[in-house]
Amino acid sequence: MVENDKPYLPVLWPFFALAIFLFAGIGDAFAHGVAQGDQGYVQEVSGVQFMPFLYLGAKHMVTGYDHLLFLFGVIFFLYRIKDIGLYVTLFAIGHSTTMLFGVLTGISANAYIIDAIIGLSVVYKALDNLGAYRRWFGVQPNTKAATLIFGLFHGFGLATKIQEFELSPDGLLANLIAFNIGVEIGQLLALSAILIMMGYWRKSRSFARHAFAVNVLLMGAGFLLVGYQFTGLIVA
């Protein structure tokens, strides 16, 4: 058993980095969007570009802190690989479904409102981990259904952003499929890093002592995302 709290520190750094990232005013570069350098590329290309879109999908997930914060909350108290796989699959199904549906049908919504809902998904999961719903309302929401539903919102948020780029219809479906595959690859890479970190932390005494505090930080990060999006909506 580890006697000190050092394993706790690596868990906090992502939250500190996120706060600095958002307060610096550059969060919009990656929050459910595509980096400026990639936007010009996806707008100019036509035809099937499988590998580039595969790369962009993986990059989107690895740099998509809203995705990662939600998934971090989802797996926080999951110990069995079977359970982790189930919840991640539900999220992936929701994300992929609305991303493909939104882009192919041209259905969209206000990006700020959708991204605010995505921020609320982080708040929801943090409160769920804190046991707030059971204490406040005496009921436990269906966590599997919630993961799927919020996955739908996450995917629809990305679809709304992608539609702004007016992608070429030539090879669009194949490129979107490649992007989705890339998202899943990026998700596996990011989750592997998170699970290694969590596995290390769970072996220490600090996990039991600080799990509550970390979920409060997670909730705060979610509210920060919501505030950022509402500020953008008002300014816009």
Description:
With 236 residues, the protein is mainly alpha-helical. The chain has one domain (65-235). The chain is built from ten helices and no strands. It has helices at 9-23, 36-44, 50-63, 65-75, 81-105, 111-129, 132-137, 143-163, 172-202, 206-235. α4 (65-75) packs across α9 (172-202) and α6 (111-129) packs antiparallel against α8 (143-163). The protein is globular. It starts with 8 loop residues before the first helix and ends with a helix.
Number of strands: 0
What is the first-to-last residue Cα distance?
52 Å
Biggest sheet architecture: none
Order of helices and strands: HHHHHHHHHH
Residue stretches low in confidence (pLDDT < 50, at least 5 long) are 1-11, 13-31
Q: Give the count of helical stretches.
A: 10
Helix-residue proportion: over 70%
Using the alpha-carbon principal axes, give the shape.
globular
SSE-based structural type: mainly alpha
**CA radius of gyration:** 18 Å
User: How many domain modules?
Assistant: 1
> Which range does the strand content fall in?
under 5%
Give the quaternary arrangement of the chains: single chain
Mean pLDDT: 82
